[in-house]
Specification:
The chain contains 9 helices and 2 strands; from the N terminus they run βαααααβαααα. The chain is mainly alpha-helical and about 240 residues long. The chain has a two-stranded antiparallel sheet. Pfam families: Rhomboid.
Length: about 240
Amino acid sequence: MANRSRSRPGSPSSARSSSQPEGIDTGSSPPSDSTTGSSSPIFEVLVIFGLVFIIQGLTAVVGAMAGLFILAPPLAENPWTIVTSVYAHDGIWHLLSNSLALLVFGWPVARATTRGRFHAFILVTGSIAGISQVLLTDFAATAPFLAGTPVAVLGASGAVFALLGYLLTSNRLSAGFASIIDVPQWVTILVFVGLALTVTLVTAAPGVALIAHFTGFLLGLLAGRTRILHVNSESSASRSVV
């Protein structure tokens, strides 16, 4: 489920059901477009993945794929890729691995939130993860005291890692532990950063956008800690992702 990064040594180029899950209280019935407990956004994202993958293949024939789907510096050159790169993939195995990870990590999150919030979470975390990868590697390549190579990225792994992070900190066990152990906020943040670094390094591999993975996972941990995806903030303490 890795974001693919492409080395760029020179100038920038391409790189309800009727029953609700236990522990989730949806409160009063909201409008249909904000109904919780639906797994449909998972399948909607998968359909987008598939359609974008087909379009990638078609546009690659005329040499337009990179400009449409690959996030690369300078970001202002093709700003739409901030969005499109989240749903694009570097080959069929990249697509399949991210799709499987989305199903595993995204299913319980989708069941605990609304369709709109789920899609927004995928898009925002995926975009921020990709931007962080591109900007930081570009900075490392231009800074005289650092050694680095600019990269271009595409893939939903930043968003997938954000879903994983959200699951880890929004479940009942984590919520109960946090209510017992009272620590300063800065300690919590340090723990989250350390955990994100560990998970990122464990999943490291050639061509993997590690900064995007780290950023996505950290965003997910922080979002899960605040249960930002839960619909009613006043009852969020009683509704955690299973």
